Amino acid sequence: MSRLLPFYKYHGTGNDFIMVDQRHNRHLKGDEQTLIARLCHRHFGIGADGLILLQLRDGYDFEMVYFNADGRPSSMCGNGARCTVAFANALGIHKTDYHFLAPDGPHRARQRANGWIEIEMKPVGSIEAGEGFYYLDTGSPHYIRFVPDVDKVDVVQEGQAVRYAERFRAEGTNVNFVTQQNNHLDVATYERGVEDETLSCGTGVTAAALAAAQESNMPAGTHCSPVWTKGGQLEVCFEREPTGGFRNIWLCGPAQYVFQGRFNLSPLLPPS
C-alpha cells in the first residue's frame, strides 16, 4: 500500500518551502534526513529550499520546525516563518497577532492590509565588524560583505569560499553580498544547508539591513529599510538603540501559496 505525504508549497520572494500540516497526523518524525533531502531535491523530489512542519505546541498558536534542503534541522528561517504564518491562516488558524515557536524561540507575527506578513525577529545586541565584513546572528549566523554591484558577484563561488573557510567550516554560515543604493539595499545570499544561492533569505536581509545601519552610522531611532532580492522586495523595520544594538526588528514581505499535492513516500522507505 502506498504511503502518501500530503504537502503544500509556499514561497517568500522566491525562497520556497514544502509545508506539512502535522496538527492531527504525524506524517514525519523529523529524523528522516535522507528522505527530507529527497523531498527538497529539485529533480527527484518536490523541490524546495527547505521543509517546514507545522505542529501544535502548548502555549502557542503553532510550532514551526524547519529543515534545510540537506534534510538537517536548522536555525531560524525568516521567509519560512512568514510562509508558515500564511499556511497557518490558510489552515484556519486566524489571528490578528500570532504567537508561535520557531527554532530560535518564540516569535510574534501579524498581517498587513496589503497581505504582507510581518515577523518579529530576535534583538541583536552587537555586530562584529571585521576587515571588509560584518558578522551577526539574526536567528541564523550571517556574514555580510558590501560590494559595488551584487549582480557582478559570483555568489556561489565567493559564498563557498567564506562558508568553508576554517572559521565557519564546522557550523557553517550564510554569506550575503550587499550593495547600498540611494533608497534601498540589493542583497544576494549563499545559504548553508542549501549550499547554493537562493533567490532570497529572510534572516539574511535582516542581517544586511542592520549591518548597513552600522556601516552608515545610522542614528538611534526607528527606521525601515527596503531590501531587494533576486526573488522580490522585502522590508526590515527596526529600532536602533543609543548603545548601538537593535530591537523591535520586523521582517516584512509577501508569502504566497503555490500548489499542493501528495507525494508517494513508499519507494523511499525501508521495507516494513
Commentary on this structure:
With 272 residues, this protein is of the alpha+beta class. 16% of the residues lie in helices and 42% in strands. The protein is built from four helices and 17 strands. It has helices spanning 33-40, 78-90, 155-163, 202-215; strands spanning 4-12, 15-21, 50-55, 62-68, 97-102, 105-111, 117-121, 128-130, 133-137, 141-146, 174-180, 185-191, 196-198, 221-229, 232-240, 246-253, 256-264. The protein has a 17-stranded mixed β-sheet that branches. The longest helix is centred in the C-terminal third of the chain and has 14 residues, at 202-215. The radius of gyration is 18 Å and the shape is globular. The termini are close together. The mean pLDDT is 96.
